[in-house]
Amino acid sequence: MSVLGKSITALGAFEIMAGTVTSMLTGDAGAGLAGVFVGSATLAGGLALERADEPDADAAAPVESAAPHPAQP
Questions:
Q1: How would DSSP label each residue in 41-60?
Q2: Cα(43)–Cα(3) distance, integer angstroms
Q3: CB atoms < 10 A from the CB of 41, how many?
Q4: Which of 21, 23, 42, 51 could form a disulfide with 12 if both were Cys (CB 3.0 to 4.6 A apart)?
Q5: Which long-range contacts (CB under 8 A, 24 or more apart) does 16-23 make?
Q6: Based on C-alpha coordinates, what's the Rg of the chain?
Q7: What distance in Å separates the CA atoms of residue 22 and residue 12, rounded to the nearest whole number?
Q8: According to the model, what pLDDT value does residue 63 have?
Q9: What pLDDT, on the 0 to 100 scale, is given for residue 20?
Q10: 1 pLDDT exceeds 60?
């Protein structure tokens, strides 16, 4: 796993948390909604980078397809 992918994943998780806390502190759901959306996209990008860095990774495959592939003859 790449350090860049891990860093971006952690940043996305932090943005989601910050957006949630902003919503709670202000009492306005819309105030932190942008942070949650941006954090979700950042988190997905970090996970995609981590997946792409694996030796047997398929660059076009979505992150959800982490199941092992059958052996090729």
A1: HHHHHHHHHHHHTSTT--TT
A2: 14
A3: 12
A4: 42
A5: 16/40, 16/43
A6: 16
A7: 15
A8: 58
A9: 85
A10: no
The model carries a pTM of: 0.61
Residue 66 has pLDDT above 60, yes or no: no
Instruction: Give the DSSP H or E segment for 64.
Output: none
What letter does residue 59 receive in the DSSP assignment? T
Cα 49 to chain centroid, rounded:
9
Residues 20, 48, 68, 70: is their CA dihedral positive or negative? positive
d(C-alpha 42, C-alpha 19), whole Å: 13
Q: Which residue has the tokens 């997946």?
A: 51
Side chain identity, residue 61: A
Question: Is the distance from CB of 47 to CB of 9 less than 8 angstroms?
Answer: yes
